[in-house]
Amino acid sequence: MDNNDVKNVVSGVMVVDKPVGLTSHDVVQIIRRGTGIRRAGHTGTLDPRASGVLVILLGPAVRLSEFVSASNKRYQATIRLGSSTDTYDGEGEPTEEMPVNVDEEEFTKLIQGYVGEIEQVPPPYSAVKVDGKKAYEKARAGEEVELEPRIINVHNLDVLEWAPPEVVIDVHCSSGTYVRSLANDVGEELGIGAHLVGLRRTMSGQFSLRHSVSLRRLKEAFDSGTWAEFLVPAAEALGDWFTITMDADLMEKVRHGHRFPVEGDHTGWARAVSEQGDLVALLEVIEETNEWQPRKVFFTT
To answer: DSSP letter at 230?
Structure first.
């Protein structure tokens, strides 16, 4: 299949190792220009100062965005102890400087208190909407910003490197977690202040850095017309979902939105794939009738 044929039928995922300095939207625009496909979007913003895994959906696969965006994330975060800023990261104005009078054992013990389901207040310099305006717009205008706490889930926190005043930690968390807020909160609890100075996303949902391609290599592939080799099947974006493999008859029923019986004990969602492994539909169990209901259908021919 040549590049023009791919553009006509493409529905899949590109996993990019985003470099520092570009916005997530910048990367989407580069991929749109390189592939010629206008229907594209990312599944979770990475700040320009952050690097790492950025999942881009192409073609009909963009309809998976709400599900892929909700996936867990993993980060390698570098925190500077003894110094706080108003933005909770290195771009802000310093608000506090304190000596680092904490050891690794004390730090490690303290951060375990942030593991589990916790409440977290987003940073005042964030894109969270307050009274119809983004919080950072109000903060930059000198307005007082009060944000409501959110429930997040931190699955795991580990110290990777202890080199005070900096410490590198591994953060495995739910979507919607602000690592900047985590750094600030830890600094406040320690009584010495802290802020985030480096962030690298190492995993987003099913995709890790080992699945990713650098932007430099991707640009070379655009020039040579070989970019399709970096396209991951859409079905793999939800690789941890329960999977139903469908024959032609069942695919025809699903194509028309018809329900079919649940075999076994299942609740919630599933992905339906063809015998060739292509994504057919997303299904949800109707518990009252114990049937699968097609919610999003991708197979149309």
So the answer is: G
